[in-house]
Amino acid sequence: MEQEKQDADAQNQNKDEYVDIQMGKHDLFFKKGYDILYTINEWLLGIWFLVGSIFFYYETLKTWGVTLFVLGSVQMLIRPTIRLVHRFHLRKHYEREYEEKQS
Questions:
Q1: Are 47 and 77 in contact, with CB atoms under 8 Å apart?
Q2: Residue 54 contacts by C-beta under 8 Å, 6 or more apart in sequence?
Q3: pLDDT tens digits for 1-46?
Q4: Where are the alpha helices (DSSP H) in the chain?
């Protein structure tokens, strides 16, 4: 019964409407793996900046401190990349699902 309703909904909506609605319904299910990546990235980012800051107290470790800050800065660029990849994969999944329901 539920599958028939979803198929009927897919017939009455354009692709963008269908994808947006389905993404809203199932975002949490698909988000789990990406949340793990995001959390690991955040944790490492915090470690790099903390250790880098401590290294700045010692003249002999300042170069390593700068290196950790650069590494942390690169990881800050990874954050939005993870989000974009997640949204891209989720949208592609529901676009394929919409196409299958149309045929």
A1: no
A2: 65
A3: 555 555 545 556 776 776 666 666 555 555 666 778 888 888 999 9
A4: 2-12, 15-55, 62-102
pTM (2 decimals)?
A: 0.55
Angle (CA) 79-98-28 rounded to 5° is 35
Span between the terminal Cα atoms of the chain, in Å = 19
Q: What are phi and psi of 75, to 5 degrees?
A: -65, -30
pLDDT tens, residue by residue, 31-84: 666 778 888 888 999 999 999 999 999 999 999 999 999 999 998 888 888 888
CB 94 within 8 A of CB 23: yes
In the numeric block, which tokens belong to residue 79? 């954050």
How far is residue 6's CA from residue 93's CA, in Å, rounded to a whole number? 15
